[in-house]
Specification:
This protein is α/β, with parallel strands linked by helices. α3 links the parallel β3 and β4. The radius of gyration is 16 Å and the shape is globular. It starts with 11 loop residues before the first strand and ends in a 16-residue tail after the last helix.
């Protein structure tokens, strides 16, 4: 019998997403689909640690299918974002910056649907790639054109000369989970690292 598990070059993927489920059922369905897509490729999940909203749905989908889940959460947010039974490995950190830094150590990035927190995480890892702190792609899962306006704004910033054309390629976008992960698999860094000679570990 042929296995449905695909071989990926990624061991883990870090997912940014909302602590709310959003208004459309399709948002919730897509969170579950993303979890299943990771499982089908033998990829573990790293995420912001909450057991609410889309965070809970994607983590449950990965965990229930037998893949490893790493949850990174600041101690202060535990009473708000950890409810009921938790799954996977929980890493408790001191603050939001440590949360992002810890999550970033583990894999490439996908921004599922979300709000301010998701956008904050998204733009920080994009900036880190631009600076040369890492060379991983950043994926936008633009279900129902969710991120299209954001992509258009970034194109405008490129047009006005504040972001280089090659640096625009850090961000990879697709409307479906399968297409997005495939694009991430094919990604080759081509942008100039504006501060790549600095030692960011010091």
């Amino acid at each position: 019998m042929k296995s449905d598990i695909m071989v990926s070059k990624f061991k883990r993927i870090c997912v940014f997403c909302g602590s709310c489920q959003g208004k459309k059922n399709s948002y919730q369905d897509t969170a579950i689909e993303l979890g299943k897509e990771l499982v089908s490729r033998n990829i573990d999940l790293v995420y912001g640690g909450g057991s609410i909203g889309l965070m809970d749905l994607v983590s449950q989908a990965v965990h229930d299918s037998g893949r490893h889940v790493i949850r990174v959460i600041p101690k202060t947010l535990m009473p708000r974002e950890l409810t009921g039974e938790t799954v996977g490995e929980v890493k408790i950190v001191a603050d939001m910056h440590q949360r992002k830094a810890e999550m970033a150590r583990h894999g490439v990035f996908i921004a599922l649907l979300g709000g301010y927190g998701t956008l904050d995480e998204l733009f920080e890892v994009i900036s880190w790639a631009h600076l040369g702190i890492h060379d991983k792609p950043v994926g936008l899962l633009s279900l129902d054109e969710y991120y299209n306006s954001l992509s258009s704004f970034i194109d405008k910033v490129v047009e006005e000369g504040f972001i280089g054309l090659n640096a625009r390629q850090i961000i990879v976008s697709a409307p479906t989970t399968t297409e997005l992960v495939e694009k991430l698999e094919e990604y080759i860094p081509c942008h100039e690292r504006v501060a790549s000679k600095l030692n960011w570990k010091n």
